[in-house]
């Protein structure tokens, strides 16, 4: 039960940071998402994101910052095995399932629901 509470708190704090970026600093949603992805990659590169994932579980893996961490993690894993071309291989290999799912489910939802206007 305690893990669920921490997941809620950490995930909520990441979302609050994003909301503050939009409200206070007047960043667009695209700029905010990009900043959170980059922040996740930087924290992952510094070795700080994985301990956060172990501590908060889904509270750290669901927000967009986790995507940046995943990109960096995949790139570094394949860099060791394949050299510089491994950076691209790793990015696509590790994140392709999530991106593909988003595209497929988005398409299926567009078949069921009709946009207004």
From TrEMBL:
Keywords recorded for this protein, A-Z: Membrane, Transmembrane, Transmembrane helix
Source organism superkingdom: Bacteria
Transmembrane feature ranges: 6-25, 32-49, 85-113
PANTHER family per record: STAGE V SPORULATION PROTEIN AC-RELATED (PTHR38450), STAGE V SPORULATION PROTEIN AEB (PTHR38450:SF2)
UniProt-listed NCBIfam families: spore_V_AE
Record protein name field: Stage V sporulation protein AE
